[in-house]
Amino acid sequence: MKLISILIFLGFIIAGCSSVKVTSDYDPEYDFTKMTNYRWAYSDELNPNDELKKYPLVAQRVKMAVDNELKSKGYNLVEGDDFDFVVIAHAGSKEKMQVNQTGGGYYRGWYDPWWGPYGGGGTTTVSYYEEATLVLDFISWENKELAWRGMGTGTVKEQSSPEAAQERIDDVVAKILADFPPGSAQE
Length: 187
Description:
Layout: H1 2-10, E1 21-26, E2 37-40, H2 51-54, H3 56-72, E3 76-77, E4 85-102, E5 105-107, E6 110-112, E7 123-140, E8 145-155, H4 162-176
């Protein structure tokens, strides 16, 4: 069971890019032009119960995707103390239920009152699926407050290989960071 949940979480990054719902929020008072250099949050700065903490290979893939995306936007990953913001990636997942009813309804142009599970051939199916959310937080080091947050939520789907998992993660991270820094999408 543990292996199955690892494979599911590996594929977490999310079935089909079109099914990813992306949102972001930010501090409108923050001057994002101050951001040039960043570092990743240290291990002791992270929630030990976070899903990414449980899956280090997925966390590495997320970091690589974020680093590549931020580099393409002109940001620099630094090792020392010369950074403007800290990046924290975290994730969670939950089981969801979907109920579908079929059959019944209209019959030869007349309304059939015996639809659904009560007669008339209708059926109800229940399916369960996993939904996962990847959250990227950018913390201003100057004031130690959240400056920007982006989230991507979608259905979990197992990936066929580590390369496919990285490709999916790259796509999701690119969607999440499309509007970072704020105002960049309108320019």
